[in-house]
Design a protein that fits this description.
Blueprint lengths: L2 H16 L2 H25 L9 H14 L1 H33 L1 H14 L8 H8 L3 H25 L3 H9 L4 H39 L4 H11 L2 H29 L6
Helix pairs in contact: 3-11, 4-5, 4-7, 4-9, 4-10, 6-7, 7-9, 9-10, 9-11, 10-11
């Protein structure tokens, strides 16, 4: 067999990979981003840097912040607060939603508080949180927990309510107890709703962390964005916004991969 005949299958295999559906999707995404950056650059040529800094200016500022470590400090602070508050909200919201969805008396007791507080935005509690808990890390984590817990609880309740009654009847006819019903029927059926609630809550946690850091933090992406106004550094604002977007994408992607691995058999 000649070298040419050996190379032919390799080239055809590479071509299939390059022209596969995933490659096309990635290419479309990259082209979309490139077009967006070009439009951003063209718009920056017609305005002042204070109003709209160019992509090159933002890239240079990003490299400066990476070099002095300030960007990593800000990202690390925000990421820790989001992770801690969101995880606490999920850990409480899931079992609370299961209990409220399964036991009517629990729902009657807790529902008035859920329905009242879920309409009050976390930013309304920033001042009280600082007074009660001080300006430290715990305040920001509590606010993110507050953001998360109601969303996860309500989505979990919806998942429990969506369980097919025939499945419950079948489990009972086979002698299932309340606990086994919860673990073998209700929980697996509600998993997609829990995951959806956790993802929505994660997005809202990014909104909350910026608000909390603006009011009571010296570090973090929100604090960095707020500090930029004192120095007229719009480029800092853009660096913070882009960092938040990338961090949010990475968080969501990691969560999706984890849930697909751990709860694959429960997902639709």
């Amino acid at each position: 067999m000649t070298d040419a005949t050996q190379e032919a299958p390799m080239k055809s295999g590479l071509a299939r990979i390059m022209m596969g559906p995933n490659a096309r999707k990635a290419m479309i995404g990259v082209l979309s981003v490139v077009c967006g950056v070009i439009l951003w650059h063209l718009a920056s040529l017609r305005t002042s840097p204070l109003f709209l800094p160019s992509p090159l200016t933002v890239a240079q500022t990003t490299m400066e912040m990476v070099a002095d470590g300030s960007l990593f400090v800000a990202i690390g602070a925000s990421a820790w607060r989001i992770s801690a508050g969101w995880a606490m909200g999920v850990v409480l919201g899931v079992p609370l939603g299961l209990l409220m969805g399964r036991f009517h008396v629990v729902r009657l007791i807790v529902d008035p508080y859920i329905e009242f507080f879920r309409f009050i935005p976390p930013i309304a509690f920033v001042t009280l949180a600082v007074i009660w808990f001080g300006p430290g890390e715990f305040t920001k984590i509590v606010l993110i927990f507050y953001t998360t817990v109601f969303i996860v609880t309500l989505n979990t309740i919806a998942g429990v309510s969506a369980v097919n009654p025939l499945r419950l009847q079948a489990a009972r006819s086979m002698g299932a107890t309340k606990l086994s019903e919860m673990t073998t029927v209700i929980f697996p059926s509600a998993v997609p709703f829990m995951i959806t609630g956790a993802r929505i809550a994660m997005g809202n946690s990014f909104l909350t962390v910026v608000s909390a850091e603006i009011v009571s933090a010296q570090t973090g992406l929100g604090a960095m964005i707020w500090t930029a106004r004192n120095f007229g550094r719009t480029d800092w604002v853009f660096v913070g916004i882009i960092a938040l977007g990338i961090l949010g994408y990475l968080f969501d992607r990691a969560f999706r991969l984890a849930t697909q691995k751990w709860f694959k058999r429960f997902l639709f």
